[in-house]
Sequence to fold (490 residues):
Amino acid sequence: MAKLEVLFFDVLGTVVDWRGSMAAEAASFFERHDARHIDAHAFADAWVARYDPAVEAIRSGRRSFVSLDVINMENLEGCLEASGLTPSAFPPAELENLNRAWHRLRPWPDSVKGLSRLKERFIVAPLSDGSTRLLVNMARHAALPWDTIFGADVSCAYKPMPRAYLRACELLNVTPDRAMLIAAHDYDLDAARRCGLRTAYVHRENAADPSKDGNPKALQAWDYDANDLVELADILRPAAQSSSS
Amino acid sequence: MAKLEVLFFDVLGTVVDWRGSMAAEAASFFERHDARHIDAHAFADAWVARYDPAVEAIRSGRRSFVSLDVINMENLEGCLEASGLTPSAFPPAELENLNRAWHRLRPWPDSVKGLSRLKERFIVAPLSDGSTRLLVNMARHAALPWDTIFGADVSCAYKPMPRAYLRACELLNVTPDRAMLIAAHDYDLDAARRCGLRTAYVHRENAADPSKDGNPKALQAWDYDANDLVELADILRPAAQSSSS
Fold:
């Protein structure tokens, strides 16, 4: 069996709590702008729900590649309108700051410790639909110890497009069987497996995109299955690997 | 004046002592293979000297993009032949290990401390002709605290091609005037300036590629000039910036 060298991580939902973080930022925004009547959690869900259909236009080739920052801003304006608010009534810098909430998403409590342990033996890198700058800002904000960063703008491909996985493998000079994707979403792992990568499912509350039929339990047998990234580090430690092989 | 957000670093010569490191690895290789009569320093110089002409074939479009690992191996074989040795007489794993010396280049004594201080205020990233994997391995080996890594394979362009600088700015979502290149080579700074980036020259002994007419002194007035990366951190500290503006 090929030696595992690289761990790629889905980020939004898997490493950071996107929905919880965005609800908190939206609540703060509505409080500052006399719109406390809007349910911040429902607003965050509505915002996230627009993400996948918007990206699908790019995956299918109907729209040229634009970064997630552009898509998120369009969706933010759409959600404000759907909530009865007028986007142009807010100072542009305030909207920009709320959109940058995606750059400040909070890691799950185990993420930094788990990544740090995994980094001792493997190259660790995000493989995310977020832009490279978004992921750099997030890593600096949350002290995520990545070896390097692959945003969707590196390959100009959104997951689950095969190019997203294969270009990242190519840039780290590994055949796909020397890499593994860690994710809390089945569709992502399924695409990675089809590209030849190994797979590890991490159970996360609240990770599912409400625009998909999210299921917190893995529907398929992935190579590994862990409750969090610290547990994954335990599972992948040398003794455990050799005793299971 | 636009706010400076990103510092890009030339790596080979500027952050790591490539010629010194490679001479040491070559000496060890020749000792193990009964070829102590070959001058390891001259061999390292000859190896480095083949780098620029080989990359020029790619810059000019005469050859498709291949990574520096491929070029370095070709040049290693050429240098062994020029030294009267037969590359095929060595175990392939030994040649591969010597070629991987480029992944283990030693940082200058100030590099880790200087980068760590600069990282407190700026995004720090290599912008190198090395491959992404080479730079990831080097960062892990030498504890270089990059925020993210841009090898030549990200843009498929070797410096001083404008695309190398502009694609890195694009991926970090900055206009070139919000970025600066730090390098010990004038040709690199000159190309960065033409792309609109700011420039800082670092004086390094032994940094010049012997295939070029290297000059340890900056020939032009760059925006900043420092003896090492710790001094650059001093120069760019907030008080110094505001007192000079």
